[in-house]
Amino acid sequence: MTFSGDLVTLTDDYLQAIEASPVMQAMLTGQVSRQGYIDFLVRLYPVVSNFCPMMSATLGVCADRLPELRRFLHQHIQEERGHEHMVLNDLRALGMADVDSVPQRRPALPAQAIIAFNYHGIRAEHPGCVLGMIYVLEILSSLYAGKVALAVSRTLGLAMSSGFSFLDSHATLDEDHMASLRKLLQLEECAESQSCILNSIGMNFYLFKELLEYGVGTHSGATSQPQFELPQIADADKAQKPLPQSAGCPE
């Protein structure tokens, strides 16, 4: 199968799994409490705050190679810079009392895994691995961010400007980003890193689903009652899913 075919199959499989998640279903239908939505933004914050630093680190690894990737990352950094402050501002608008402590908190386990995996990939495998993280975050934002913001804001009776600016702004912004990213992925420059990119996409999808569900009644490490109105999940559904296997990358 071609790279494009593999990409479509991989994306469809993971999107179906994410859409089937009880947590995603609750968010898309607005069955989320204010505290549940706050908890989601807090879990998301370290991923957002590391987005630009990770792309900057990739530029350092590229050095004078991969000019199209470097050009894409330079532009993307300019467009994404400061978005972590949007998350903090949304938390303030939602009434979170200790927002200033969020950047100092240890990230949730799946967020730690996302950050560590991607920094490792760009340094130890290939700088093109960063495109896997970008692809996953952009496609999830373009497909779901606006829908979640609208559904939850309606349930809570709040305006979009009162805690939903981050998600709402990425709904349309990331559609443009995806168009640019798809063009980049088809360039000859990315050919040598296609297996790395596919592996990164699979892992980032997998870990984002874990982050979405973390501590919301689907993990044994949960320390509080779920803030989402979830159906009962059978024990068989709680079993840990295997990690995606690495496809291997060129030196």
How does this model look, in words?
The protein is an all-alpha fold and 251 residues long. The chain has a single domain (3-216), classed as Heme oxygenase-like (Heme Oxygenase, Chain A). The chain has ten helices and no strands. It has helices at 3-20, 22-28, 34-49, 51-62, 67-80, 83-93, 109-125, 130-156, 165-185, 194-213. Helix 1 (3-20) packs parallel to helix 10. 39% of the residues are buried.
Task: Describe the structure using short key phrases.
mainly alpha, 251 residues, disordered C terminus
CATH architecture: Up-down Bundle
Please tally the helical runs, counting DSSP H or I stretches of 4 or more residues.
10
CATH superfamily: Heme oxygenase-like
**Low-confidence regions:** 218-251
Q: Which bin fits the share of residues in helices?
A: 55-70%
N- to C-terminal separation?
22 Å
Please tell me how large the radius of gyration is: 18 Å
What would you call the quaternary organization? single chain
| Structural domain tally | 1
What's a quick, concise take on this entry?
This protein has 251 residues and is mainly alpha-helical.
